[in-house]
Amino acid sequence: MYTLKSGNLMVLIGDKGFIDGKAAGLYYMDTRIIGKFVPEISQNFDFLSLGEYKNDSIFFWFISKSPSSFHDKDLLLKVKYRVDGQKLSVSYDFFNYSNAEISLFVRNVIDYTFNDIFEIRSDKTEKREVKIERKAGEEITTYKSEYLEHKVIVKRKNSEKVKIHAKDHVEISFDIFPYVKFKKKTYGTELFSVEPKKIKFDLNKKGSTMIKHAVEDVKMLLIDTKYGYFPAAGLPWFATVFGRDSIIFAIQTMDIFPELSHDILKVLSLTQSRKRDDEKDAMPGKIVHEIRVGEYALSGKVPFSAYYGSIDATPLFLMAVGRYQRMYGRIFDELKESIDLAAKYLDENVDSHGYLYYRSKSPQGLSNQGWKDSGDSVVFANGKMATPPVKLVEVQAYLYEAYMTLSSFYTGELSKHFLEKAVTLKKNFNEDFWMEKEKFFALAIDGNGEQVDSITSNPGHCLISGIIDDERAYLVTKRLMEPDMFTGWGIRTMSSKMKAYNPIAYHNGSVWPHDTSIIALGMYERGFKKESLKLSRSLFKAARYFNWRLPELFGGNEYIVPYPVACSPQLWSVGAEFVISKILKEGF
Q: Is residue 198 packed enough to be buried (19+ CB in 10 Å), middle (13-18) or exposed (0-12)?
C-alpha cells in the first residue's frame, strides 16, 4: 500500500497501482470518500513496475502488446496520482510505440463508499446510499446524514474513446474534489479548515539524506486548521490531532520548528477541555488526546470527537510551554488562561502522595492512558496485570517539570505552592518508585499500592526531567544499556527477561524510535554522552534500513523485524530523526 497526503487529503493506493483493496481509497476529514477508482480498458495491460514515489505523487508503469506487434510488447501505460491539498489528480498516459494507430475505450469503475475511518480500521464497512448526478465531463456524488454532508466532484478531461497515432501518446486525466459540510458543532468541526494553504518551510540547511527525508515527512504530515498548521500523528490511520504525540514532537524539534511548535501549543490550548464529561474522560484543564470529525465520532458511536484519555498530555503541555518560553518568550502571556486551567487540573487530581494517576471512566475509553496505551502494557514482571488506578513512572517526571514550570511562571504564594509540590513529589517519587534490588525505577504503582516491577523503557523518560539525581540517573542509564534492554537498534520497551516480553508485541518488547530518542536526549542532557551517542548511532542504522524513514515501531530483536501495521511516516518517529541528528551533529 502506498500513501499520499497533502493537507487534509490522503490517498491509499494498492501495490498494483490502482485505488483498489480493503483499505485503499481517497480519504478526507476521517472519511473514505472513494473506495475504488480503477480503469476499465478495452486493451489488457499488465502491471510492470513502480515508477516514482513521493509524498504527494506516485506513478506506475503498465505494458501491453498491440495487435500489429509480431513479438515485442509495444504499448506502455503510465498511471499517475497527485494530491495538492484540494484535489486528487489521476492521469492515464498511453504510449503507442507500434507502427499503427491504436483505438482504446477507457472508463473508470468508481465506488463511492463514504466510510468512516473507524469502519475501515475494524474491517466492518457499511453501505451508504448516495445520490449521483452526471453532467458533461463531470460526476457529482453526495452523501447526507444527520451529522454531515459529503460531496465529491469528479471532472474528466478527454472522452472515453481514445485514438493513439503510431509513435505518439495520449493522456486522459481526472480531477477529484471532495467537500464536507458539518451539521454538528464540535472542537474538531470548528478547528479544521477547508481552505488549504501553501506549505512553506525555512529549513534549507544542508542535512543528511535522513534529515532531508524527515523535512519532507513533516510537510506531508501537516494538516490545515483555522489557527495554523498542525502535524498529524501518523499515516494512514492517525491523520488527525493527537495531543501527546504532537507535544512530544514539539519537545523533540522546538529549536528547529519554532512556528510549528507555537501552532501546536496554540491549537491544544483551544481544544483543552472546559468541562467534565466521563464519556470522553474529560475534565476541566485536560489537554486533548484525539480529535475526529467522521460520522462515528459526531454521532457518538466512538468518543473521539474530542477524547481526553491521556494522563500525560497535560503535564507534557506545560513542559513544552516552559521550554518554549525559555527559548522564545511570550508564550505564557498568550496562553495564560489555558496554563491556569492545566495548573488547576494538576493541582486537584493527584493522590495523597502527589502522584498523577488514571482510571478510565468512559465505557469506550482507553484502559491504559500513558504513551503505552495498549490494554496489556502495564504488567508486573511475573505477567500479572496492574490494578487501576495506575501511577506511571514517566508521568511523575513530566509532572515534576510541569510544577517547576508553573513555579517559574507564577509569582508570590502561587509560585511557592508549585515549588513545594515539586519538592514533595521528587522526595516521594524517589522513595516509592525506586527498586533497590534492581537499581531501577518501577514501571508504575498500581491501585493496590504495589510497585509494578517490570523492567521497561519508561524510566528512561525521567532523564529529561530533574526528578532523579545524578547517581540514580547513572544507574538508570547503565541498566538501559544492558543486553536485555538495548538491541543494537534501539531500546526495547520491555526487558527480554520479563514474562510478558514479546519482541513483536506493540508495547511489551518492541523498539519505538521516539522512545529511544527521548532516552538518548535525556542521557545527553545529563552528561552521559557516550551512551547517548551509542543510542543515536543505533537509530541511525535503523533509519538506513528503513530507507531513511523510521517507522512507528519495529521488532525488539537483535536484528530488525518490521512491525506489520506500523504507521509510516509517524510524527514522533520523524522527531526522533531530528533528535539523533542533533546528537550526532548530522546536518546541523
A: exposed
